[in-house]
Amino acid sequence: MKFLAKSHGLITALLTTLTLTACSDPAATGGSIGNDEKVVLKVAHFWPATALSQQKVLEPWCAKIAEESNNQMTCQFYPAMQLGGTPPQLIDQANDGVADIVWTLPGYTAGRFPSMEVMELPFLIKDGETSSRVAWQMYEEFGQEDFKNLKPLAFNVHDRGQIHNNVRPITQLSDFRGLKMRAPTRLTNKMLEALGATPVNIPMPSLSESVSKGVVDGYILPWEVVPTLKLHEMTKYHSEINAPDPVLYSSLFTIAMNKQKYETLPEHLKKIIDDNSGADFSASIGRAWDKSIVAAKQPAIDRGNAINAISGGELEQIKQAAARVESEWIAEVTAKGYDGQAMVDRARELLNQ
Q: Which of 2, 129, 206, 307 has the greatest number of C-beta atoms within 10 Å?
């Protein structure tokens, strides 16, 4: 009996501790944060802390909301998945409150956000800045239901996605044939398959090792990421599709906030978040990516890597092969209840304005 009583006491104490812990976090109980209470936002992403994403986007953004809130609201960064899990789990970490804000790719969770996949169709966009502004507009018109459990702060695409590999220079469609290539999302994998390559799913943190060990022959990435992961040191050939032609591919990113955390904030802090979210913030991220191209490409040039441009008739053949990705996507999302053709038409209309 003494043992049972002691056990009961320990259990009661544990439950009391857990209850007090939960109650200390207003977001966990549906409560509100006081008007003068300090707020530290946990900001998580999969890049290293030295990447553009943190240094040129998240840090300045957090500095701005700190300044506007007189340091009542600040950020704590968790780069390189320091909160645990894998990059595809970031969106759930935002949903579940493991992180307050995440920067990730909706496409990492295939088929979960069909409305925004339109921004990843091949040969649609031309740059980061304009296309990121359009991405926010597409979210407002078509994507709010898909993201109803989150508080999106921005949507962006990166600078021009290019082709990198170790087997041969890619100058025409047939050069893709048989290459094992890494791509970031479901639609970019479909595109590689349409071009004759074999897509390989590899998380971004594992890409450098996979390239160095020959697990993959190459990858498609914007230039900004290449030196961040030191990929230029283990890559021989780079092939570009340059302006004014639209890009081979793009990946869509979102900076998203835990909705419950946002709703617990006092009104003046909500306003600061709202004032620093949306189309302008999205466009500024795309602009940062665009500005990164020249400096990010330079280490590959300095190393003497081969860089060639694809244009003319060779490019037209690649466009024609990739066109099936768009038609298949329209049919697929339309079958799920979306108007796929309307989304593609609207994206093109906005991008051409």
A: 129
Structure tokens given for 160: 């021009």
Beta strands 198-200 and 180-182 are parallel
Q: Using CA atoms in the order 267, 272, 275, 276, what is the torsion angle rounded to 10 degrees?
A: -140
Which CA distances in Å does 174 have to 75, 171, 185, 319, 332? 48, 8, 23, 13, 27
CB 269 within 8 A of CB 73: yes
Supply the DSSP symbol for 341: H
Sign (positive/negative) of CA torsion 205, 134, 353, 350?
Answer: positive
Calpha distance 127→132 (Å, rounded): 8
Taking residues 54-74, what's their average pLDDT?
Answer: 98
Angle 302-53-179 from CA coordinates, rounded to 5°: 55
Pick from 138, 173, 164: nearest CA to 278: 138
Contact 193, 212 (CB under 8 A): no
| 25-39: average pLDDT | 72
Query: What distance in Å separates the CA atoms of residue 4 and residue 1, rounded to the nearest whole number?
Result: 5
Q: How far apart are CA 218 and CA 235, in angstroms?
A: 8
> What angle is formed at CA 255 by the lines to CA 259 and CA 30, rounded to 5 degrees?
15
Q: How far apart are CA 40 and CA 35, in angstroms?
A: 14
- Which of the 8 DSSP states describes residue 105? -
To which H or E segment does residue 45 belong? strand 39-45
25: alpha, beta or left? (left if phi > 0; alpha if psi -120 to 50): beta
Q: What is the pTM of this model?
A: 0.89
32 SS3 class = coil
Tell me the backbone φ, ψ of residue 70, rounded to 5 degrees.
Answer: 55, 40
**Would you state the structure tokens that stand for residue 129, as one six-digit string?**
């800045």
Condensed to tens digits (0 to 9), the pLDDT of residues 3-14 reads 334 344 444 343
In whole angstroms, give the CA distance from residue 245 to residue 316: 10
Q: Which two tokens stand for residue 63?
A: 């500095």
Contact indicator for 277, 161 with CB cutoff of 8 Å? no
